[in-house]
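User: Quick sanity check before I run a bigger batch. Here is a single chain. Can you write out its predicted 3D structure?
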Amino acid sequence: MEGVDLTLPNSLKRRTPFIHQEIIRDILSRLPVKSLKRFECVCKPWQALITSINLNRPRLLYAPLSVNPNPLLSVDYEALNNEDGVAMKEVHCPAVVEPDTTLIFLGSCHGLVGLGMDGRDGLVLWNPSTGDMRVLPKPTLRKDDMNFHGVGYDPSTEDYKVICGYSDHLKTVIEVYSLKRNAWRTYIDLKCVNLNLQDLQGCYLNGSIHWIKFSFLRSSIISFDLAENRFKEALPLPDCGPGGSHELSSLGIGTTRNCLFVHSGLDKPNLNIWVMKEFGVRESWTRVLHIPSAVIGPDHGFDEHGLKPLCILDNGEFLMAYDEKCLQLYNPSTMTFRRIIQEDDDNSPIETVTYEETLVSLPVAEVLELE
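Assistant: Done. Predicted structure follows.
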């Protein structure tokens, strides 16, 4: 196993023991992102080593929409059972976000989060772990006209992209922002029309951004391929008994451990979650959770909001948003809910997005004035 020579002054180098690279990597991977950013300045070998580290620390960004979003709350959901409070920390918005601005999460990929702002057409690509940001040129589409959006990575060009789109019965207009080019391109699809997507925010996996396309006859997963810049409808939903997937009339989609998951519920008395264990294979759908209506009970109601699964924890618990007002953990072993965060204002909806702590940096670009 190769080691790393800590590039220090000669007087210290003689007394520095030989340390294997994997040991240093393991130590560094446990440090906070701010510390890692400082240690990048130690020497070029450390800079290369730190840049190559995959922190793989999943977090959830939480924002109540009716209050000042500075700061937001970043939740380490794998540490929610800790009693020392380290599971939650404050994250300040980019400087271009003015006070009392309602935020919209466009999506996330590899630790980068897309932000939209209510009443403005400006968009921001932001790394909440490092504070790096890029103000995007304005797309042609106005924010109020967008039917869907997402953030993803094109491995064929090693480029991050932001997707904004609009769809009606005549056409679908997709605008694609390239981080490398720092510019938008517009694509018009005359075949893929009248997209009825369950969630505006798509989720990224395997070079594509995915949404649920709702249909009274048969809903499906529709995917936007970031290399080809076009929609592909090739992923089936799980069969859920008599009647097939049309029973999944109210759905959500997300990712967990590099797998897609979908959930029913929202307007259903029962809540179910399926995970696609092998990407693109219908037979690999596996139901990992069933919560009957008797367990959900009157405390969670059966209204148009209901319970929305956000992520699946390593310990088998499920983090959910309830009624767009609070976060709850569900323990399938005890069949109980535990409230994590509750907004004081009953009329205050929340916005959430899952992301990973990462050291991905954004190239410096001219900060455009937001109008």
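The two ends are 55 Å apart (CA to CA).

User: Great, the batch can go ahead then.
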